[in-house]
Amino acid sequence: MSSSPPPSATNRHVLVFPYPAQGHMLPLLDLTNHLASHGGFTITILVTPKILPLLHPLLQTHPSIQTLVLPFPSHPKLPVGAEHVSHIGNHGNFPIMTALRQLHDPIVEWFSSHPSPPVAIISDFFLGWTQCLADHLQIPRVAFYSVSSLLVHVMNSCWVHIKTDCFRSSPVIEFTEIPKSPSFKKEQLPSLVKQYQDSDPDWNLLRDDVLANTCSWACVVDTFENLDLEYLDHLRKLWGEGRVFGVGPLHLIGAAKDGRNPIRESSSEILTWLDKCPDDSVVYVCFGSQKQLSRQQVEALASGLEKSGARFVWVVKTIHETDGRSNGIPVGFEDRVSNRGILVKGWVSQVAILNHRAVGGFLSHCGWNSVLESIASGVMVLGWPMEADQFINARLLVEDWGVAVRICEGANSVPESEELGKVIAESLSRDSSEKMKAKALKREAVGAVRPNGSSWKDMQAFIYKLIQLPQN
Ligand SMILES: O=c1ccn([C@@H]2O[C@H](COP(=O)(O)OP(=O)(O)O[C@H]3O[C@H](CO)[C@@H](O)[C@H](O)[C@H]3O)[C@@H](O)[C@H]2O)c(=O)[nH]1
Fold it and tell me: Does the UniProt entry include the keyword Disulfide bond (predicted)?
């Protein structure tokens, strides 16, 4: 175990505990960045050793932030060395969540030996067991949600009813207790819900963990009122006034006055390439931080992009190898499209790319961060939901907000490349209602984080609530 020197006696000391997946971590680090910039807090972030480098931009911006680095607890279902969901993919959530629960005792030990321990814990909703930890330590806990308010309702409802015969046997689940009574096919429900095994005690602990979030002292959601009002208000009704804060899009709140976000921004040759492209002429293709496509999916995408004739930036994560060939990109593809497309193998600064005037469409898996980032950039989405909350997000994007079209659906589906090429070409070439609505929604997102905007007010209220906590 390693940690930094004791915090200042005048500040409120807060422990931030992110869940090790970029889609969860980045917005919580944006929130942490904001708290650190605000002042009045001493902040300790808890991570395991392989996660520490991911904090680098934040720690560089705020050297006062301290770290608590605890060894990653082993788990039989995890390969040695895996500490982050991207190391194994979405199916790694269950063993990672289960393994991290073992940090309960080391954290208690750290608290008891600390001269001025934290007065609150802010932790990801995938770490629901920290509610028990906070109860044990007799301090408040804030549940942080990097998902839509609708998803919070759907998830809680699924976990409440998951053991009932009706839930088990119905192919379609109707959520009558949620505003507008949405219904979803079983296969569209969050991955953890679909993977649940009643006979496994660890799954039942995980269920209890997720539901424990509802007992948290406060709940912070990365969303904003004009996007999610009905569901956010319903959360307020259930949790009680003064406990639910819609503070998103957090990547905008984390940005400095010049619009740059120190946690997300990085210089990139892609931006230089985009500088040479006309406005709204490029489709950006990226499926989040952890999804690895199959060879067939990569081939279909490559073919679709080629047939579209469109300019593109395509971020390819490592491809799952099933047949021993070295990669899934068709031979000669990169040469054939070199005058109009960039293929990036690795990590890009997505927020910077989406904000570039040349980007006119986002082919996305509809992860919640990608959803918020596309909205905040005013870019329409070509949606291909695959897993987790993505089907629910796609429904919001297409049906509720009208800023997206669906191009495919399912983790193992392979789009038809002719059709894909056509949709990409069309979406870039004409002024669609989706594009106009996306631009309008961007104004709402930007307005929400401006002084007196809904997220700005909720953030003020949240900070005030934290600062009021008694010091040790
Ligand atoms: O090359 C990349 C790839 C991703 N990102 C960023 O990484 C985040 C990715 O988050 P998201 O779009 O939500 O996708 P996932 O990484 O797949 O996120 C997981 O976590 C999210 C939050 O719970 C869920 O909504 C998703 O469905 C789930 O897959 C975003 O901020 C992106 O800007 C980059 O900056 N560069």
Answer: no
Distance (Å, rounded) from C-alpha 412 to C-alpha 238? 37
Q: How far apart are CA 61 and CA 64, in angstroms?
A: 9
Best residue for ligand 1 mutational test, from 284, 289, 317, 353 (most atoms within 8 Å of Cβ): 289
Q: Where are the alpha helices (DSSP H) in 19-126?
A: 22-38, 56-61, 93-100, 104-113
Instruction: Tell me the per-residue pLDDT of 433-464, one tens digit each, with 9 for 90 and over.
Output: 999 999 999 999 999 999 999 999 999 999 99
275 phi-psi bin (left φ>0, alpha ψ -120 to 50, beta other): alpha
Answer yes or no: is the C-beta of 373 below 6 A from any ligand 1 atom.
yes
Ligand 1 atom closest to the Cα of residue 126 is 23
Whether the Cβ atoms of residue 352 and residue 266 lie closer than 8 Å to each other? yes
Angle at 350 between CA 345 and CA 352, to 5 degrees: 125
Q: Which residues, in sequence order, are CB contacts of 262 under 8 Å at separation 6+? A: 33, 57, 58, 60, 61, 254, 256
Atom of ligand 1 at shortest distance to CA of 389?
27
CB 442 within 8 A of CB 450: no
Spatial contact of 377 and 299, defined as CB atoms under 8 Å apart? no
CA separation for the pair 28, 37 (Å, rounded): 14
- The answer to whether the CB of 26 is under 6 A from ligand 1 is yes
pLDDT along the chain (472 residues), means of 10: 51 97 97 95 98 96 97 94 89 95 98 97 98 98 98 97 91 96 96 94 96 98 96 96 96 74 76 96 96 93 97 82 61 95 92 96 98 98 97 98 97 96 95 96 98 97 96 77
Strand residue runs (E) in 326-446:
341-345, 359-364, 380-383, 404-406
Angle between helices 104-113 and 130-137 (to 10 degrees): 30
d(CA 235, CA 245): 10
CA dihedral 327, 328, 330, 331 (to 10 degrees): 10
Atom of ligand 1 nearest to the CA of 351: 33
26 Cα–ligand 1 center, Å: 8
pTM: 0.95
Distances (CA, A) of 411 to 152, 277, 296, 384, 415: 22, 32, 12, 9, 11
Give residue-wise pLDDT tens across range 139-168: 999 999 999 999 999 999 999 999 998 888
Residue listed under structure tokens 């990409």: 424
Helix (H) or strand (E) run with residue 124 in it: strand 120-124
Tell me the residue type at 426.
E
